[in-house]
Amino acid sequence: MWKVVIVDDDEKVLRGMKKIIPWQELDCEWIGEARDGEEGFALIKQLNPDIVISDIYMPVKNGIEMIKQLRENHYDGKIVILSGYSEFEHARQAVRLRIDDYLTKPASIDTIRSVFSAIVEQLEEDQMNSVQVAELREKVKLYEPLIEKEWLKSLITGTVDHNHIPPAVKSMISKWDDQDHVILTIVYDQQLEQSKLYQSDWYLFRFAAGNIIRETTERYEESYQYVELHSHQAVICLHFDKDKQEEIKNKLYQLAGALEASLKIYLSVDVTVNVGGIKSDWFEIAQSLREASSKNNHHSLGDSDELLLQTTEGKRTIWSESMEANQKLSEAIRYADETSARQIIDEYFSKVDQQSYQSALAMQIGIELWTIMTYSLYDIGIRIDDMFDESLDIYQEINTIQSWDALSNLIKEKIVTICHHQQWDENLKHRQLVEQMIDFVQNRLNENITLQDLADELYISRNYLGQIFKKIVGESFKNYLTRIRMEKAKKMIQEGNYLIYEVSEKVGYVNPAYFTTTFKKYTGYTPTELIHRKLTNT
Predict the structure, then answer these.
(1) What is the mean pLDDT of residues 28-33?
(2) Which comes out higher in pLDDT, residue 16 or 324?
(3) How would you classify residue 63: left for phi > 0, otherwise alpha for psi between -120 and 50, otherwise beta?
(4) What is the pLDDT of residue 304?
(5) How confident is the model at residue 144 (pLDDT cuts 50, 70, 90)?
(6) Of the given ranges (156-170, 350-364, 423-437, 446-460), which has the lowest mean pLDDT?
(7) In Å, how far from its chain's centre is CA 49?
(8) How confident is the model at residue 312 (pLDDT cuts 50, 70, 90)?
């Protein structure tokens, strides 16, 4: 409830205001009174009310002086002047002190209700704005790491828009203009799937591998980023002072060997670490990746002063070496974007088709594509095995292919199956999942329910769960939850058995003011106005 303090030296006015103000209807409560400006200042400073009603002419310190002192001490609450008609000009002069409204003595109940309603509405709007700003700040904090990660991946793979740099990454790149840069690629052996940790828990494997790579890298260079490109490849982007290029060459030798040895010792997996060319401009980081992804460049230095780790463009045919296409395909699969995924495959194979068909190369490309799609789905909680018949043998299907066109068509067939399977329309399992979500909401409506709570309860990723719910129900989980809460609140208010703050708690809102604001946004009127309508109609 909104807290109110009244400052007036007239005992009759104090008693009258206490009696005639419809406190419950306005969702307000009287928390204190004072009889002069000095006493009022001390009380307001102690209790910090939302609303102050003050007379002007009082002993010891008048209302204007008290208000001036409050504003100087950063009191931001609402202030209503209570004055006689003869003092009106004096009251008008107080505008510079941010007086929110005034009441002339004597004030009718309708006038008091009108002024208070306007003040409460301002408070609710201010609080909503404050909550929205706070939520926005939290979202920014939450998404900053994700924005940084995705922007960095785009920079490394060559898909970034250099004309648009998100504010979240500006602190990261602030030193880059004075540094040189180089990419190291970490490519897992094709036998990776045989690792026991990999087989038992893919997420745990990623966590363990990431920690080993970071700890190893930090022994050689502090300024770096570690980025996973897909299931079989990750990169390290190193930054170092421009006058340390000779020194860094030796470190790159050592770091590459140390990474291979550490992953072999601790995780029993074989990796190949390749090094790209050193770049003086961070805009060219993607070029360093392309050089590191070229074949026959296993952490070796050329004869010149810079790293010469590139081969001819014609040899770069393996899918994993096409980082831009890799990232685009992964995103298309995660969003079930069939059109984009098919287009990416067509564009890639239009280049591959320029060379003669090789069965071994086709097998490698096909398996890499299948792996990318598998783990793109796995990251959002979907098992690709659940989308295909148990008899599917992707290796055998690729092995029977005799041309690049046939391989392209096979991959696109799998993409169609994946994307259409994600439409969920006839998927009983998803409908049962949504029914569980609705039951959860109905049983715990008085709790602070979030989609993450449901995801934890049902052992499924939050994003995937949100997609399922919206597809089946036709609205987002957030909108559904608000609608159910507001409809129940409306019913409870109309029944008249609960106070507004009790209704707020019973539908999951700890803060009654935020509940009131949400209620008005949903229904078009406040809970108090709904009560008044009910009383008027009876």
Answers:
(1) 91
(2) 16
(3) alpha
(4) 33
(5) low
(6) 423-437
(7) 34
(8) very low
Cβ proximity of 240 and 180 under 8 Å: yes
Angle 288-294-298 from CA coordinates, rounded to 5°: 90
CA nearest to 469, candidates 427, 506, 421, 507: 427
Using the predicted structure, report yes or no on whether residue 63 has a pLDDT greater than 90: no
Give CA–CA dist 21/188, Å, rounded.
Answer: 74
The answer regarding whether domain 178-314 maps to CATH 3.30.70.270 reads yes
> How high is the pLDDT of residue 310?
33
Domain 428-537: top CATH class: mainly alpha
Strands 78-83, 101-104: pairing kind: parallel
For the stretch 168-192, what's the b/e string if a residue is b when 16 or more beta carbons lie within 10 angstroms of its beta carbon?
bbeeebeeeeebbbbbbbbbbeeeb
Residue range 127-142: mean pLDDT, rounded: 62
DSSP assignment of 12-54: HHHHHHHHHS-HHHHTEEEEEEESSHHHHHHHHHHH--SEEEE
pLDDT over 90, % of the chain: 18
Contacts of 253 (CB under 8 A, 6+ apart): 299, 301
Q: Where are the beta strands (DSSP E) in 231-303?
A: 233-241, 271-275
DSSP letter, residue 511 = -
* End-to-end C-alpha distance for the chain, whole angstroms: 26
Query: Residues near 459 by Cβ (< 8 Å), separated by ≥ 6?
Result: none
Q: List C-alpha distances in Å: 471 to 476, 485, 506.
A: 9, 21, 29
Buried b (16+ CB within 10 A) or exposed e, 505-533: bebbbeebbbbbbbbbebbeebbbebbbe
Q: What are phi and psi of 339, to 5 degrees?
A: -60, -50
Q: The tokens of 131 are what? A: 């909550």
- 99 phi/psi in degrees, rounded to 5: -75, 130
| 465-477: b (≥16 Cβ within 10 Å) or e | bbbbbbbbeeeeb
Domain 2-129 has CATH 3.40.50.2300: yes
Residue 48 CB contacts under 8 Å (≥ 6 apart), including other chains: 3, 75, 77
175-209 pLDDT per residue, tens: 898 899 999 999 887 666 666 655 556 666 777 88
